[in-house]
């Protein structure tokens, strides 16, 4: 039993040395690398820039939407007042297209869930 206890003591001592070497190496590694935390003003500046960029993008998208809507509405009003047949044809075709597209997508989604 003394041999087993002696062996356990040597293994425990070796484990302790290994742990202490790992801790020392990690401490040296932490000391070598310095991490600089930016100032609060840097983050505030970044947030302001991001906010300005988002606002600019929002206005750009809004103007594109308004322009597209104006074009579509002007086409529909012109066709309604000058050529009612074209207007009714476009309306009927759009309803048929939307209905068939909705049915197709719904069927595709249901088949993918099976």
Short overview:
By secondary structure, the protein is mainly α. The protein is built from 3 helices and no strands.
Structural commentary:
Helix 2 (40-82) packs across helix 3 (84-113). The model has no long low-confidence stretch (mean pLDDT 85). The chain is built from 3 helices and no strands. With 114 residues, it is an all-alpha fold.
Radius of gyration of CA atoms, rounded to a whole number: 36 Å
Output the helix-strand order. HHH
Portion in helices: over 70%
Distance between the termini: 67 Å
Mean pLDDT: 85
What does the overall shape look like? elongated
Could you describe the largest sheet, including whether it forms a barrel?
A: none
- Percentage of β-strand residues: under 5%
Low-confidence parts: none
- H/I helix tally: 3
> How many beta strands in the DSSP annotation?
0
- Estimated structural class: mainly alpha
Q: How are the elements arranged and paired?
A:
Blueprint lengths: L1 H31 L7 H43 L1 H30 L1
What key attributes describe this structure?
114 residues; 91% helix; elongated
